[in-house]
């Protein structure tokens, strides 16, 4: 289980066990009902009690989004529970039952609740004292460049031997005019972002006379074609496992009408979306998107950035939107920006590098281990945000290895379970006694265990 609980829906309440537990909310005695469902993010069974100021209508609508039916006036059954994630949003309270008996999920369930969900983790007897953060199944796949012959009837590809080569990652794109899912695995891509079906903007239900203009329709279809050539197609067309999320690239109507205003602002580049990660166009079949060099480019992958931005700005103007309305929203990648912009403080006595060179971190099993300069940015997602300037040493867990524990690694020595990514060869620079460095250890990408500053002994 990857335990990306609530990752897509909540970007506030950024908390970690290492930073102290949040305050437990006082739950209301008013019970609206309960909803049993399979989490769209973890594919594990969950159940939620609706408490407090929820209306029956809103609770029913929430349960319907989870592809289930609400049972009013009754609470979740309590058998086989790892713990409860308690949230309070202005009186609308949830008691989310994390179901199961596999105690290896305890640490990741706690992190999912607190770190991604902004909630309070209340462990059951099964998980009491089980805080080790561990990700075993469906770990984030590293990018892989996949090459294959073009589909029958399609022209030769642009790579050696006429093949079509595509980076199999959420920020990847195949060649213009082709469909990404024909040349890369969307099942792999969906492991890199939580996916769930989300209905489009209600504006999409209204008739739009602009679709009578052939030039306008050509622009809409061009945007659809561009996005179908990118990994966006994996979650945003009718081939997605439970249907498209927010917008449907297969629609015959006006695609723009399916976006909410914030999505239009991101498409226009009014909100920076660098936190999602991006390839340079020369490595991505000519497609680019917002990145560190051009933060005000569109979130939409495209081979013609000026045209893409212009079309989203045209839609914004049609809606009466102004760029100044979004001046206070500097970044739009939600939790990924929270992670990327994190600044570490001093390590606890249980973290750091000892006199024997051994790395120590908080309870958890590591897939990625970094030692960086003290002022380096926090690593996040590939392909361009997981190698920040100032990275001295990076180890990745081998694909078939069990995650490693604290004190199992000596600085500069590569254990058999891991591979060294930085530097590409040779030993990392020696640590200078008395100098501060940044230790960053994760159970998986976006699942930090320790991220703190230590002083070299």
How is the topology of this model organized?
Blueprint (H helix, E strand, L loop, with lengths): L30 E8 L6 E8 L3 H10 L5 E2 L8 E9 L2 E8 L6 H11 L3 E4 L21 E4 L15 E4 L12 H4 L2 H4 L24 H15 L32 H7 L37 H14 L16 H6 L11 E2 L5 E2 L7 E6 L17 E7 L20 E5 L13 E9 L2 E9 L2
Antiparallel strand pairs: 1-2, 1-3, 2-5, 4-5, 4-6, 7-8, 9-10, 11-12, 11-14, 12-13, 14-15
Helix pairs in contact: 6-7
Q: In words, what does this structure look like?
A:
Helices cover 16% and strands 19% of the residues. The protein is an alpha+beta fold. It folds into 3 domains: 107 residues, no CATH class; 182 residues, no CATH class; 113 residues, no CATH class. The strands form 4 sheets. A 6-stranded antiparallel sheet has the order 3-1-2-5-4-6. It is globular and about 70 Å long.
> Helix share of residues?
10-25%
What characterizes the major β-sheet?
6 strands, antiparallel
- Please give the alpha-carbon distance between the first and last residues: 38 Å
Q: What's the helix count?
A: 8
Strand order of the largest sheet: 3-1-2-5-4-6
Secondary-structure element order, N to C: EEHEEEHEEEHHHHHHEEEEEEE
The overall average pLDDT, rounded, is: 91
Which stretches are low in confidence, meaning pLDDT under 50 for 5 or more residues running? 1-20
Please give the domain count: 3
Q: Tell me the total number of β-strands.
A: 15
| Assembly classification | single chain
Structural class, judged by helices and strands? alpha+beta
Which percent band covers the strand fraction?
15-25%
From the alpha-carbon coordinates, what is the Rg to the nearest angstrom? Answer: 23 Å
Shape: globular
């Amino acid at each position: 289980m990857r335990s990306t609980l609530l990752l897509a829906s909540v970007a506030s309440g950024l908390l970690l066990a290492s930073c102290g537990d949040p305050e437990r909310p006082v739950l209301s005695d008013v019970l609206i009902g309960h909803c049993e469902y399979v989490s769209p993010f973890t594919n594990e069974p969950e159940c939620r009690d609706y408490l407090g100021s929820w209306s029956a209508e809103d609770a029913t609508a929430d349960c319907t989004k989870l592809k289930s039916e609400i049972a009013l006036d009754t609470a979740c059954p309590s058998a086989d529970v790892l713990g409860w994630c308690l949230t309070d949003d202005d009186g609308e309270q949830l008691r989310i039952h994390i179901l199961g008996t596999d105690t290896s999920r305890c640490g990741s369930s706690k992190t999912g609740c607190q770190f991604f969900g902004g909630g309070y983790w209340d462990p059951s007897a099964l998980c009491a004292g089980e805080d080790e953060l561990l990700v075993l199944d469906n770990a984030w796949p590293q990018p892989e460049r996949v090459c294959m012959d073009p589909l029958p009837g399609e022209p030769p590809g642009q790579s050696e031997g006429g093949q079509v080569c595509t980076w199999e990652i959420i920020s990847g794109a195949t060649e213009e005019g082709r469909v990404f899912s024909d040349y890369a695995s969307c099942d792999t891509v969906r492991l890199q972002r939580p996916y769930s079906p989300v209905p489009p903007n209600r504006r999409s239900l209204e008739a739009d006379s602009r679709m009578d203009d052939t030039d306008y329709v050509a622009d809409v279809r061009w945007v659809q074609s561009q996005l179908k050539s990118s990994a966006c197609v994996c979650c945003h067309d009718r081939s997605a496992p439970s249907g498209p999320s927010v917008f449907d690239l297969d629609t015959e109507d006006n695609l723009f009408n399916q976006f909410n205003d914030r999505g239009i602002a991101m498409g226009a580049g009014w909100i920076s979306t660098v936190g999602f990660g991006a390839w340079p166009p020369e490595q991505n079949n000519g497609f680019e998107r917002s990145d560190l060099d051009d933060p005000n480019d569109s979130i939409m992958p495209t081979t013609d950035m000026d045209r893409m931005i212009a079309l989203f700005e045209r839609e914004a103007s049609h809606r009466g939107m102004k760029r100044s309305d979004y001046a206070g929203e500097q970044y739009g990648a939600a939790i990924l920006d929270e992670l990327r912009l994190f600044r570490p403080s001093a390590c606890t006595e249980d973290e750091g590098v000892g006199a024997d060179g051994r790395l120590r971190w908080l309870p958890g099993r590591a897939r990625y281990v970094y030692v960086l300069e003290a002022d380096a940015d926090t690593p996040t997602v590939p392909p361009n945000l997981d190698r920040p300037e100032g990275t001295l040493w990076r180890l990745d867990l081998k694909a078939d290895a069990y995650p490693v524990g604290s004190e199992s690694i000596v600085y500069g020595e590569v254990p058999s379970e891991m591979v060294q990514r930085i530097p590409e060869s040779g030993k990392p620079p020696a640590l200078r006694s008395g100098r501060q460095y940044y230790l960053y250890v994760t159970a998986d990408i976006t699942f930090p265990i320790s991220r703190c500053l230590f002083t070299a002994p």
